[in-house]
Recover the amino acids of this structure.
């Protein structure tokens, strides 16, 4: 779960901290997270100014994809 950059409290999602309204910090790696009940993020394979790229496996088709997550 993301945590507040100021108070350190964990809370779900990309939202403001319920305690002080600060933006949530993204975890160091999202490996192991399933997006939209379809894509299992397996490994971060790249990162840059425009986002992060993960190797992902489609959970039903068992095919490998690249998924780019924007900041």
């Amino acid at each position: 779960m993301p945590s507040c950059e100021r108070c350190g409290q964990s809370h779900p999602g990309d939202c403001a901290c319920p305690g002080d309204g600060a933006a949530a910090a993204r975890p160091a790696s999202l490996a192991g997270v399933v997006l939209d009940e379809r894509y299992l993020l397996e490994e971060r394979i790249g990162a840059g100014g425009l986002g992060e790229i993960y190797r992902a496996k489609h959970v039903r088709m068992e095919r490998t994809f690249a998924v780019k997550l924007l900041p």
Remarks:
- The radius of gyration is 14 Å.
